[in-house]
Amino acid sequence: MSARSLAASPRNRKTLRRVAAGTAAAAAVTAWWAFDTAPYPYAQHWLLDLPLPFLSLRRLDGLLEPRPGERILEIGPGTGLQSLHVAPQLGASGRLDIVDIQQPMLDHVMRRAERQGIAGIRPTLADAHQLPFEDACFDAAYLVTALGEIPDPTATLRELRRVLKPGGRLVVGEFFDRHQIRPARLIGHASDSGLRVGKLIGPPFAYYARLHPCAEPVDCAVPTHLPASLNTV
């Protein structure tokens, strides 16, 4: 059998796809470590489009649950990998606000949105420690590989709790780099911010967590051990 025939068989094509995916994931991890700074400089924005293991858009959707008509906030959109996926799900009556400390990043996202015909994204240049929004104005919010790059994560989580509506959803995605906030630390930061972690998905080195505002202070107490409901899967 020729090499071309071997490569063309369904089993071999599947194997080649797996090898390619593994190679791409390894390259992403290597690049993330090699160029890791906080915040990511715009000159290295191409790295932000590399797919990171376990931090898929499908998993983000499963926790964020974006719905038509909602107003959602994203902190640190980078080049818009998540923004351009979430915004269309909010429909004509919804809106995605994106906040970044670097204007070039916001401009980049808006150029991509315009090219793809995606409306409903509003950029804001601001520091995540002091969000320029009214109390309880967002249905949900999310940060992907951003919280660990912010100097004071607790202050940012407090601000996010302030701008979330009662019962609002907050999704945090963290990847294993120099700035990663490990799950146990996130639970502590959340407790100090009036939030509780309700669900964790993925291994500790690349996980998504969904947080909710606490109804009562006692609901935010840090557990002595990780409950079974919070175990990563």
Descriptive report:
- This protein is α/β, with parallel strands linked by helices and 233 residues long.
- Helices cover 33% and strands 21% of the residues.
- The chain has helices at residues 3-8, 10-34, 57-64, 83-86, 103-115, 153-163, 183-192, and strands spanning 71-75, 95-100, 121-125, 138-144, 164-175, 195-201, 206-213.
- It has a seven-stranded mixed sheet with strand order 3-2-1-4-5-7-6, with helices on both faces.
- It starts with a helix and ends in a 20-residue tail after the last strand.
Structural class designation: alpha/beta
As laid out across the biggest beta sheet, the strand order is: 3-2-1-4-5-7-6
Distance, first to last CA: 42 Å
Order of H and E elements: HHHEHEHEEHEHEE
Mean pLDDT: 84
Count the helices. How many?
Answer: 7
Largest sheet: 7 strands, mixed
Strand content: 15-25%
- Low-confidence parts, pLDDT < 50 over ≥5 residues? none
Helix content: 25-40%
What Rg, in angstroms, do the CA atoms define?
19 Å
Assign an overall shape: globular
Q: Could you give a quick summary of the protein structure above?
A:
With 233 residues, the chain is of the alpha/beta class. The protein has helices spanning 3-8, 10-34, 57-64, 83-86, 103-115, 153-163, 183-192; strands at 71-75, 95-100, 121-125, 138-144, 164-175, 195-201, 206-213. The chain has a seven-stranded mixed beta sheet, sandwiched between helices.
Layout of helices and strands:
Blueprint: H1 3-8, H2 10-34, H3 57-64, E1 71-75, H4 83-86, E2 95-100, H5 103-115, E3 121-125, E4 138-144, H6 153-163, E5 164-175, H7 183-192, E6 195-201, E7 206-213
Parallel strand pairs: 1-2, 1-4, 2-3, 4-5
Antiparallel strand pairs: 5-7, 6-7
